[in-house]
Specification:
Layout lengths: L2 E6 L2 E3 L3 H11 L3 E7 L1 E3 L2 H5 L4 E5 L5 H11 L4 E5 L2 H10 L4 E4 L5 H9 L9 E3 L2 H10 L7 E3 L24 E7 L7 H10 L4 E7 L5 H13 L6 E5 L3 H13 L3 E4 L8 H8 L4 E4 L14 E4 L4 H9 L12
Parallel strand pairs: 1-3, 1-6, 2-4, 3-5, 6-7, 7-8, 8-9, 10-11, 10-13, 11-12, 13-14, 14-15
């Protein structure tokens, strides 16, 4: 009989926590994972392709009752709850033996507020994806310091692209630089544009947006790109499937390009790990847990956060010779 695990999180999206769940499910096919959520954010199709993930969407006002019902009627091996501390207290009240509260945010303020709402008498285990996150939890919530354990995220197994599912990217003879994320301050996309503007025309930017549904932010991003003279040197695509994104990593690697992360904080750094594991050379700001990633299929170069010139040098070092440079 298959083991069962319950995973509770507000959003079902194509990235973020859905990637965490998909990593667990594709690496543990003997377990059935029930995913309970209330907000459909574009991830149902990507998760529905994983046969041992059972999706359960309920109205926001009913998720507490449903979680408690499932916890008392199903023999779960473990129950993981994220971003819903009040719900975690309730579920731990009926199944304290198997409930873990998971912390995946890299925002210290968010983590502090969440953990302040947890009942220390009920929550026996806090799980985090990195040593960096464990240290942050211990600092902001010392009452839970002895209950923190590191559970590194796993890379999801990805189905290869079929013959009719090529990503169809034409880099037009240029060296591609890949950036993936949302257009928010934490992901810091403008530093990617600044770096690209300082690089010669042999480079082109491929920007993959996920969970981005604010037209005004996209308009501002494209406007800033145009102001830097990059209108013809970037291409923006939305919400690639896991298989297509994996294919894009491979294409950029074959073209001699790099993955670039300008994030200002990372509790784990899925994108960086996916890129390097795909054989794609990666340049990133040295933030959060990124330095914890060990040897992979491709090198990872970390530079000081905010050092755009350092990004440029790290990206272009393979093309520079002792007699040339870009005045940085």
């Amino acid at each position: 009989m298959s083991q069962r695990s319950l995973f509770v999180y507000p959003n079902c999206s194509s990235g973020g926590m859905s990637t965490v769940l998909r990593g667990r499910a594709t690496n543990d096919t003997a377990t059935t994972f029930d995913f309970l959520y209330h907000n459909e954010a574009g991830g149902r199709n990507s998760l529905a392709g994983t046969p041992n993930i059972m999706l359960h969407r309920v109205a926001k006002g009913r998720i507490d009752a449903m979680a408690q019902y499932l916890a008392t009627t199903q023999s779960y091996r473990d129950i993981s709850i994220t971003s819903m501390p009040e719900l975690a207290n309730k579920v731990a009240g009926v199944r304290p033996d198997v409930v873990s509260y998971e912390v995946h945010s890299s925002d210290e303020g968010v983590v502090t507020k969440e953990l302040a709402k947890l009942d220390p008498d009920r929550i026996a285990a806090i799980q985090v994806p990195s040593r960096f996150s464990a240290q942050m939890v211990a600092a902001v919530a010392p009452q839970f310091a002895s209950r923190v354990s590191v559970r590194p995220n796993l890379l999801p197994a990805v189905e290869p692209l079929g013959a009719d599912q090529t990503t169809n990217f034409d880099f037009e003879g240029r060296t591609p630089l890949l950036w993936v994320g949302r257009l928010d301050k934490g992901k810091n996309p403008n530093d990617f544009l600044r770096a690209l503007a300082l690089l010669p025309d042999i480079y082109t930017g491929i920007v993959v947006l996920s969970l981005e549904n604010a037209p005004e932010r996209i308009s501002r991003f494209l406007g800033y790109a145009a102001s830097l003279g990059l209108a013809k040197r970037i291409r923006v695509v939305m919400d690639l499937s896991p298989s297509r994104l994996a294919g894009l990593y491979a294409e950029v690697a074959r073209a001699g390009g790099s993955f670039v992360s300008t994030s200002l904080m990372e509790s784990f750094g899925y994108g960086v790990l996916e890129a390097t594991s795909s054989g794609l050379r990666t340049v990133a700001y040295d933030v959060g847990a990124l330095s914890e990633h060990g040897p992979s299929a491709a090198p990872l170069k970390l530079v000081d956060v905010g050092d755009v010139s350092g990004l440029v040098r790290a990206i272009g070092e393979r093309h520079l010779t002792s007699s040339q440079g870009w005045g940085l």
